[in-house]
Amino acid sequence: MNINHLRYFEKTCQHMSITKASEEIFVAQPTITAAIKELEKEFGFQLFEKVNNQLVLTTDGRVFFLKVREFLSSVDNFEKMALDLKKKPNVTLRLGVPPILGTFLLGDIIPGFELQHPGIHLELLEIPTLDGLKMVDEAKLDLLIGVQSHHSLSLCDSKSIFITELTAAFSPESPLSKETVIEKSMLEHTPFVILPKGSFHYYAIKSSFEDLPLSIIMQSNQVSTIRYMIKSKNAATIIFQEVFENDSDICCRPLAEPIAAEICVFWRKHAYLSNAMKVFIRYIQNCNFTYHRKPLLASNQIQDPSFRAMLRKSVSF
């Protein structure tokens, strides 16, 4: 049995397309096709069939796919354990960070982490939480900093870093600036710019304002663009309280119905944690992020089980 053949099969299953699998892993389509046929010959059952000209797994193929994923995960874990035994002096960690979180978190992580741990190099990728979780699950990222949700609970293991919440942000000249707390009804006719699909913000805001849909005129994950739209009085937004709290050109107010966000570091479910991954997780848990924000949530509320259940429900997507 050739492990590469199993990897080609797994990638084909992820895309349900030999063409897309070929493009992603830079292996010729005939090579992948031959590998799948070799697996079918070796194990004695058909893996795929064509339905309406679409590639689909057979019943045996679906069972085989689950076993292959489990086996390849074990192989990946073994490789990490072997590198730990070797005590390799230079290790690269592939870390995903959503763009908006990066604006106020990366300053505490870089260059501090690599100064303390020069043998561990961070390879950073800006990616929304939902897309990043998929990459972690597919072993394309080692770790992801993102927001906890029901979706992440099913895909990844995690450690909590801190809990924050979203606030409304708008021009100081907006009538909303006279309010101390923003009710949903106050936002009914306000143009909004929000983060795109794939982000925690998009699904949390859509869910929270389901009964009173916002007037969304733009989606952007660029803080500079969002800031321009607010400063020029073209739109408001709902965003992490840390992003604009010290910006004199932006007015921030808490929402009457808070949208909480638990910031976590994620890794592949049941995966082996290498020494480098453990070092980074300990480092980020010990980072002092609290100076970034004026907490709107009481500590007893954060620890309350009913609140934490509400938090996960509010970000279910």
Automatic annotation (TrEMBL):
Superkingdom, taxonomy of origin: Bacteria
Protein name, as recorded: LysR family transcriptional regulator
Species per Swiss-Prot/TrEMBL record: Anoxybacterium hadale
Species lineage: Bacteria, Bacillati, Bacillota, Clostridia, Peptostreptococcales
